[in-house]
Write a structure and sequence with these properties.
20 helices, globular
């Protein structure tokens, strides 16, 4: 009984602190779009260069996902997140000090490296401290809280940066990261019990339960952590081979590449500038419209588990989310010729945010269809795809804007991503409902 209480306390404290840190990830990811006009006044850049600046965060995030997955599985989340938050703080300070494009690029790259460790660590905590049957619900809560960072990075950041200056905002965020680093040392614990202690029995019981519900019968799923530490390079080869050769991994990767990548592209940079240019609005008004997407995020995150129950599976829920999202962008791009009535945009952005939250089911699916001991690698590979997709889409929109006289033509990039997201859901194999 005492062990169970301790396990519960450590699991929830670890998860809670990392989820608070995850709020800052969303803030940093979407912040450039809200300060773009002030930024370009002090550091001259065109649309392509601005897109590349935003993508620096995504490059680092994508580059780090597989190393992070390995490090999470090997050294644990506590040390990794402490170091990650320190790097995030350094990058945030450097961005506030930047007066050249090169320094701005470097600072955003550092922020991407530092913040890249958090979401994979959260998934590792969920997979090791909690039953796998709660993975989707916890992922929904993670997105629910994390998306408050998206909300802060849009209308509030636009207002605060105009009042106090965009540089001061990033100095303050550096201080927040330092405080969070100390919280990680205090309250985050890795689930690495010694052989023979009560946790070993608990983990074995949980593993057997996963096997029963997932119909996964491989012996490695039943085994508890290995008695001998596998050499690093062997572990790397085995984990990557296991995850990348699994055909059920790839629909989840494509989902994050296209479906989630479109939201990161739109909200991370181009949403506010596109609405401003197409309709001739001021930045604050445009930010207010785009903010409705974060309301959709916040409402949609806790509803994901309900979608799964009502539609009787992860795949049907993702098909519904990606299919309705595709119809939304067909209306915006084709039917409305890229210029829907301006009063509809709050509703459109809200629906976009609501539907995009079904993407978190891809993490539940990729965890269920891969070995539990490689859960860090599996979620890291999947998460990496979002930032590759976001980088490509951001640069593509920049090219479209620089070489086309039609600003609304940029919506075709989002429509293409929406189409790929729907195809990914069609290709996905359903995981057992019990997982």
């Amino acid at each position: 009984m005492q062990f169970a209480l301790k396990t519960s306390r450590y699991g929830w404290s670890s998860w809670s602190i990392l989820v608070i840190a995850f709020i800052t990830v969303f803030f940093h990811r979407l912040s450039v779009g809200s300060v773009a006009d002030q930024l370009t006044q002090e550091i001259p850049m065109n649309a392509l260069t601005l897109g590349n600046l935003t993508a620096m965060n995504y490059y680092a995030y994508a580059l780090m996902q597989i190393p992070v997955g390995i490090l999470v599985d090997r050294i644990g989340v506590r040390k990794l997140n402490f170091c990650g938050l320190l790097i995030t703080a350094a990058g945030s300070i450097l961005f506030g000090l930047a007066h050249s494009l090169e320094i701005a690029y470097l600072s955003r790259f550092l922020v991407g490296i530092g913040s890249s460790v958090i979401i994979v660590s959260i998934f590792k905590i969920q997979a090791t401290w909690f039953p796998l049957s709660r993975f989707s619900a916890l992922s929904g809560l993670t997105s629910f809280f994390g998306n408050f960072g998206s909300l802060l990075a849009l209308y509030p950041l636009t207002f605060v940066s105009m009042a106090f200056g965009w540089r001061n905002v990033f100095y303050w965020m550096a201080a927040v990261s330092l405080v969070l680093a100390l919280l990680v040392l205090w309250g985050v614990r890795d689930a690495k019990p010694k052989l023979g202690d009560p946790a070993q029995k608990e983990l074995k019981k949980a593993s057997l339960q996963v096997v029963a519900t997932s119909k996964i019968t491989s012996q490695e799923q039943i085994n508890t952590p290995e008695k001998k530490s596998v050499p690093f390079m062997r572990f790397l080869r085995e984990s990557l081979r296991s995850v990348l050769r699994n055909p059920r991994t790839w629909p989840n990767v494509l989902t994050l590449f296209a479906f989630t990548g479109s939201s990161t592209t739109l909200l991370g940079l181009w949403g506010i500038p596109l609405i401003t240019q197409i309709y001739g609005l001021d930045k604050v008004t445009a930010a207010g419209y785009v903010t409705f997407a974060t309301f959709g995020f916040i409402l949609g995150a806790p509803l994901v588990s309900l979608w799964v129950r009502l539609l009787k599976g992860v795949r049907p829920a993702l098909l519904a989310g990606t299919g309705l999202n595709l119809l939304l962008w067909i209306y915006i791009t084709v039917i409305a010729s890229g210029r829907p009535p301006i009063q509809l945009w709050p509703v459109l952005f809200f629906l976009f945010g609501l539907l995009i939250m079904t993407h978190i089911l891809a993490f539940s699916n990729v965890t269920a269809v891969n070995s539990l001991k490689y859960s860090g690698i599996a979620t890291a590979v999947t998460n990496m795809a979002e930032f590759i997709g976001s980088s490509i889409a951001s640069l593509t929109i920049g090219l479209v804007l620089d070489h086309s006289g039609n600003t609304s033509a940029a919506w075709w990039v989002i429509l293409f991503m929406a189409t790929l997201g729907f195809i990914a859901a069609l290709l996905m194999k359903e995981q057992p409902i019990g997982t």
